[in-house]
Amino acid sequence: MPPRRSTGSTSAPKRERSTSSSSLSDIPATKPKSTSKAKGKSNGDDSKVSVKPRTALADDAKAGDDDPAEVEPPKKKARVAKAKVWPPPELSPDIHPPRNGYPIFKLPTTTSAKNGALPPSTKEDRPMLLGAHVSIAGGPAGALLRAGVAGANGLALFMKSQRQWKSNPFEPEAIEKFRNLMKSKEDGGLGYPPESILVHGSYLINLGNPDEAKWNNSYECFKDDIYRCHQLGIKLYNWHPGSTVGACTKEESFALIAKAINRVHKEVPEVITVIENMANAGSNIVGTAFSELAAIIALVEDKSRVRVCLDTCHLFAAGSDLRTPEAYADTMKRFDEEVGNGYLGGMHLNDSKADLAGNKDLHENIGLGKIGLTGFRCIMRDPLMSGIPLVLETPAPEKALEVGDLAIWMREIKLLYEIQGIDDEQWEVKKDEIEARWRQERDSINPPKDKGPGPKAKAKSAPKGKKKAKKDESDEDDE
Fold first, then answer.
1. Of 225, 311, 364, 382, which residue is the catalytic one?
2. If DSSP codes are grouped into helix, strand and coil, which group holds residue 143?
3. Which one of 121, 388, 427, 430 is most buried, counting C-beta atoms within 10 A?
4. What one-character-per-residue DSSP string does 388-445 give?
């Protein structure tokens, strides 16, 4: 998933750029290059030439070298916009692989309380709703097509650029395309019903900031995201709760966040607000402990429209162990006791580069970090995770989302379903071999970055005025 942006900062970029709703994209728009050339007829002295600039509507028209009184300029050809092929050939359902997760793993019976999954759209047994965060390049319906290309049973997406406060509204055609693809395969869609989709909110939003102007700015972005979900028929909207920015107490931030939830529930129907747990325990960040999530929920008026999304990397970074069946069971028992299983609405699956309780939000590919494959096998075999979106936000090659490179997530989806089906006795025998094989595959898809010269090499000093190293993305949320 793209690097996280600060939730504490509410200043908009110096120059806002709206994207067309029919071509919403996770790719920042590039500045068009000027194609105008100065041409003119010399009159024998050093006077400036006359220039006829090009325009977007007639960029192939020449700036005339002849006197217009003597030569009639050529007629401009009207440009006719080419109709875009839908669906794009590279995302066509005809090339989608079979969905992963079959044959369906039979989950064990449980006596624990059920999760907060939406009512299922089918009575048939389904695999875990496992997928990845995919791009909305070309319009929101493109995200469903990309999930299909990945063989996923669930997905996450943004509603607009996560780097901008505002974007153009969705066009009716974009909404219709998305809703049609959400339908079952029998009805001509791709079979991604509302319970399988988890939207991720803008990283700019900070509803815990007591500054009134900044809070209002965040709320409008929050409300706009949720209204877009409503337009598309999506029911689950997940976002980072925010930070006190050191300007108020945690309790005051809880009240501000709940105020936003209560207001948006009255202004936009149906959509469920899903609060994500955070990584930086002991900081100004809100939602790092189960007790903080529970405190926010306690202030929500319509509790039927609030859920929690647990991010595994955030859990581990904040001190909740997941590495063994015993540690995982203890963590989920505490969640049920402090928050309640009925509020669990989704999960982000990420390994951690940082150690347990390291307070650093550093995502790693599944099974290759400090959590390890056993922790994720526990999740995949837990009945509590049935019927809710399980979304990968793991590292991928640079600009993988922008260019449509889904290879890393396609492989991780297969891996998670694979380890789900291995029984306990065989797991102890096979886990090391599976990890070694997967690490080799991951390295071939996304080679580890060059670590640079050894310790004996002379370190280069950073240019004046520049930071020596990039700040941990976990620190950005606290600004």
1. 311
2. helix
3. 388
4. SEEEE----STTHHHHT--HHHHHHHHHHHHHHTS-HHHHHHHHHHHHHHHHHHHHHH
Please spell the DSSP secondary structure of 172-205, one letter per residue. HHHHHHHHHHHS-GGGTS----GGGEEEE--TT-
Is residue 133 annotated as part of the catalytic site, yes or no? no
With tokens 């939003």, the residue in question is 205
Could you say which of 4, 5, 96, 163 is catalytic? 163
Range with the poorest average pLDDT among 16-25, 136-145, 397-406, 454-463: 16-25
Decide if 96 is catalytic. no
pLDDT for res 449: 79
- C-alpha distance from residue 398 to each of 406, 408, 413, 472, 474 (Å): 12, 12, 20, 18, 19
Of 225, 292, 351, 361, the active-site residue reads 361
Over the stretch 221-265, which tens digit does the pLDDT of each residue have? 999 999 999 999 999 999 999 999 999 999 999 999 999 999 999
5 burial (CB, 10 Å; 0-12 / 13-18 / 19+) is middle
Question: Which phi and psi angles does 176 have, rounded to 5°?
Answer: -65, -45
Q: Quick check: 295 pLDDT over 80?
A: yes
> What's the predicted TM-score (pTM) here?
0.79
Q: Which of the residues 26, 195, 224, 276 is marked catalytic? A: 276
Looking at 3.40.50.620, 3.30.420.40, 3.20.20.150, 3.30.565.10, the CATH number of the domain 126-445 comes to 3.20.20.150
Q: Where are the domains of the chain?
A: 126-445
Given 126, 133, 307, 348, the catalytic residue: 348
